[in-house]
């Protein structure tokens, strides 16, 4: 088999479940690493990206709780950078341990990654990305008075959550460095948490208060490094239509045209599967020779063995269900 350059985008369930302690997240990533090293064993080149939703929310809470005039809390872009460092550290440590156990001498390195967004993106006018915990009305009144720039929304009767803009990524600043690393045989961990959101001001990059969708950022990275495959990991083995109904059907090999028809029918939830499907479409549209895959971490072994998962390409599939 010809070696491929593969970007794997880890979902939050690969890092954090119920226990937010460092030890628990490290254990989860050690289990994740056991799946990821399978790509190295079969001779592929690997680039890893990951989410950071729960982690960045927790950091912001810790920052706010300990903020003083002499030691103020850090802005959101810096909090994203902090999670890139902490999760990258845990993951490169876990990967190194698994690689060593298999007798594979491969270096793993985390790249603190900036992702460029357009400061005129309409998303800045309409914050939609929830971060952090739920609050009751009294709590947000207090928080809002101390932080008038914050935006909150009521979430399905469960309370209020802070929301921030989620602009689309337009470039990955360190994509060249990531490509140099992977071409040199190193496993880079990059674009963590969707990347640190920055806007271009002349020759400068300026951080902004936003969170970039991890799947769109991973797609942009895969596109920029010329990846052969983008694998987006989520909680289910396949994408489904008529999800959670008696008519539920899993999608196997499927074309962009078919997926776009399902999007038009409203088959995919905006807050969960839709961005993954849209990122997969975007990748194979920009790299027609490439392939996008949506599946679960636990299904990676079956995917490697027999192609199990939802596989998206630009060509018409013979059978999509």
From TrEMBL:
Pfam family, one: AA_kinase
A GO MF label: carbamate kinase activity
Catalytic activities: hydrogencarbonate + NH4(+) + ATP = carbamoyl phosphate + ADP + H2O + H(+)
Domain Aspartate/glutamate/uridylate kinase stretches: 5-286
Pathway the protein acts in: Metabolic intermediate metabolism; carbamoyl phosphate degradation; CO(2) and NH(3) from carbamoyl phosphate: step 1/1
Keywords, ordered alphabetically: Arginine metabolism, Kinase, Transferase
Gene Ontology biological process: L-arginine deiminase pathway
GO cellular component: cytosol
CDD domains in the cross-refs: AAK_CK
Similarity-based family: Belongs to the carbamate kinase family.
Stated name of the protein: Carbamate kinase
Species assigned in the record: Secundilactobacillus silagincola
Gene that encodes the chain: arcC_2
